[in-house]
Specification:
mainly beta; UDP N-Acetylglucosamine Acyltransferase, domain 1; 8-stranded mixed β-sheet; 0% helix
C-alpha cells in the first residue's frame, strides 16, 4: 500500500506487498495478501484472512470467521455472514466460512455462515449460498443450486496459476 487512504480506518492489519487499499475502507485486525485490491466502501472484521492476488469490489462486508484463499474475485455488494441465529444480545456461535482458490462470487450475493465455496467455483449474481458449493461448480439462485460445472477452458492450468500475465478468460 503506497499511501494511507485519507478516510479509511486500518487498525492492527497486515497488508501484503503491492496490495492496494482504496479510500472509505475499514480494516480491523485482518490479514491481506500480496497484490490484492480492496475497493472503496469495504468493511473487513478482525481475524479475516484474504489471500494473494484477490480482487474485492466495492460495498463488500466480510465479518470475523471468513477465510478467502488466493486468486478470488468478490463482486460488488457481496455480504458474508457468520452466525445462523443472530441476536442483539447474549451468546452466539461463530461459524467459519471459506472461499477456496480461484473462486468468483457475483455481485449482490449473500454467503451464509459455515459454508465452503470450492476451488474455481462460480457463484452467479444475486445468489444466496446456504450450503457448500463443490470445486469447479457453477451455482446461482436463492438458495444457490449447482447447475453446471466450469468448462475446462475456464479452469486455470497448473502452469498458469499464479503467474503474471495469465488469464482466467
Amino acid at each position: 500500500m503506497r499511501r494511507r487512504p485519507k478516510y479509511s480506518i486500518i487498525k492492527k492489519t497486515k497488508v501484503g506487498q503491492s496490495s492496494r487499499v482504496y479510500d472509505q475502507v475499514n480494516l480491523y485486525g485482518c490479514t491481506i495478501g500480496q497484490n490484492t485490491k480492496i475497493d472503496a466502501f469495504v468493511y473487513v472484521e478482525e481475524g479475516v484472512t484474504i489471500g494473494d492476488n484477490c480482487k474485492i469490489r466495492p460495498f463488500v462486508f466480510i465479518p470475523t470467521g471468513v477465510i478467502i484463499e488466493d486468486n478470488v474475485f468478490i463482486g460488488p455488494s457481496v455480504t458474508f455472514t457468520n452466525d445462523k441465529y443472530p441476536k442483539a444480545h447474549g451468546e452466539w456461535k461463530l461459524l467459519e466460512t471459506r472461499v477456496k482458490k480461484f473462486a468468483s462470487i457475483g455481485a449482490g450475493s449473500v454467503i451464509n455462515p459455515g459454508v465452503t465455496i470450492g476451488e474455481n467455483a462460480l457463484i452467479g449474481s444475486g445468489s444466496v449460498v446456504t450450503r457448500d458449493i463443490p470445486d469447479n461448480a457453477i451455482a446461482f439462485g436463492n438458495p444457490a443450486r449447482v447447475i453446471s460445472k466450469v468448462l475446462p477452458a475456464l479452469v486455470p492450468s497448473a502452469k498458469t496459476r499464479g503467474t503474471k500475465g495469465s488469464s482466467r478468460l
